[in-house]
Amino acid sequence: MDKFTTLTGIAAPMPLVNIDTDMIIPKQFLKTIQRSGLGKNLFDEMRYTEGGAEIPDFVLNQPAYRSAEIIVAGDNFGCGSSREHAPWALLDFGIRCVIATSFADIFYNNCFKNGILPIVMPQEVVDVLMTDARKGANARMTVDLETQTVTTSDGQSFGFDVDSHRKHCLLNGLDDIGLTLEKAAAIDSFEAKTATVRPWA
Amino acid sequence: MTAPRTLYDKIWDDHVVHQAEDGTCLLYIDRHLVHEVTSPQAFEGLRMTGRIVRAPEKTIAVPDHNVPTTLDRANAATMTEDSRIQVEALDKNARDFGINYYPVSDVRQGIVHIVGPEQGWTLPGMTVVCGDSHTATHGAFGSLAHGIGTSEVEHVLATQTLIQRKGKNMKVEITGSLMPGVTAKDITLSVIGETGTAGGTGYVIEYCGQAIRELSMEGRMTVCNMAIEGGARAGLIAPDEKTFAYCMGRPHAPKGAKWEAAVAYWKTLFSDDGAHWDKVVTLRGEDIAPVVTWGTSPEDVLPITGTVPAAGDFTGGKVEAAQRSLDYMGLTPGQKLTDIAIDTVFIGSCTNGRIEDLRAAAAILKGKKIAVKRAMVVPGSGLVRAQAEEEGLAQIFIDAGFEWRLAGCSMCLAMNPDQLTPGERCAATSNRNFEGRQGRGGRTHLMSPAMAAAAAITGHLTDVREMMAETV
After folding, report:
1. Averaged over B265-286, what is the pLDDT?
2. Nearest Cα to B114, choosing from B133, B137, B91?
3. Which one in B167, B230, B233, B328 has a CA-CA gap of 20 to 30 Å to A107?
4. Is 3.30.499.10 the CATH classification of the domain at B293-471?
5. Model pTM greater than 0.80?
């Protein structure tokens, strides 16, 4: 997993609530056995006509936002299906950070496993960031994970919360499985105990 | 004397392998269910790092999401190339890593959330995960069950644990009894209508109250299945005699002395009086009506007697979302829900693909003909299908004009050829009405099996209670 430390980039405004993972990556693209290559189908049904032509109005098709690295969105981003293809598609497109008033749990968790930073901000801050994002390609937002701040193109700075374990893993690009396997002895003893107290499990 | 605990607290406490200073826990996983769509990258990850499946005996795989449900599916040509590769990858991964497996050719194959309980893999007090958000279904047994992403699938395969932080406790109580024609699906949709799709975010829900107690195990699975649609990763119901009776004798349920010990433990699995709840929602069972969804979010729920709302009826970001839904769904504010014409009826899914669901639909359909363009029943498993044939339900569906399919997820998520075409309007017993969920441009109205059957007969959304009155 790639580290996430700081990011200065273009933010795409998506002022919609309940952007679900079916929207982010429709099911016809889940038939892959790889993690890569999904970026071209990110938001497929909002981004392309049925014939495959780009829909010019869609934010990521607009010249200013084609190389966006941040998305600013409404409530409950990533709701619905647990498909990790959603963060894979975002990442493959180049999105490393999503800022919203709230996220669905599974999606939020999946982001951290893939080097994407999801940031929860209150509505009034999201409103400010949305306005900044609407300025287009000349307005670059800065996200600093170490200091836990988001700074707009005109220098307004806002703090955010992030779980300390997740922050540590993201800053260092750590693989969870390797960390857990260091606790193999604890897992062994848990299994031994369970075999006695809950032998049916 | 320990402080009073909720059911969730108790299951959590019994599965903590390690707790870090910052509160992050390593939680032991008792059952890991696997399907073809969210697992290939996880197995590939194991291969690349030379890791093995730590507990293959606790890992159960079944292909369900993109397998065809047509009767000719034994012929591999019915699958698209990419679907076939995914199913073959699962075949190979199950074989290579020695995990329990129900291939497409096995009569026990079906939707992973129907197969788990049916085979007795899911038991009270367990932690159950799967790379699928509807894993919440298994909470009906009083097990802590939730969906995970593919990275976590790999983590569980390699370590049989998950890194977790504890969620908050939410109680959803349904008091009193349901009225005739009202089902578990109406409960779960009504709760989401009340709390919104983010109302449960960060919580584990425990459903309780008389109306929940009165539900069968299958009804309880329907309720818990859609906890995720309310934002909660997991929904739970405390186990009781109905739960024990359901589990007893299933192939992987304990037997003899182990069974006795298990039941004694399961009887301790309830929320103590005085346990702390972070949020409480109460609905009166008598107030719940047969409901349908009108929009493109599962929170867009209305009683069938209602009318299509206007965007102006909402506030905040929901105004724009409601307008977008109305446009997508092709509906006009003020239109009576019962005036909405239906093209297609889909009965099935992990929400409503069990035998009681098929019985409820068949009771409405018996001796009638469909008035929609197409209708299909997709049983949740091969065993559900066999039982429905034995009970004569299959013939009722066929006589009414339904297609009688093989088991799978089918048109719930339309990964296989069962898809809506743009503008096609479907009465569905599944769980999501998102844009494009059942096929690009497809319009989904969620409802109970009885309500879907009623819509099939009349060709428009229908209050099943009127139809029940006719048959009395």
Report:
1. 98
2. B137
3. B328
4. yes
5. yes
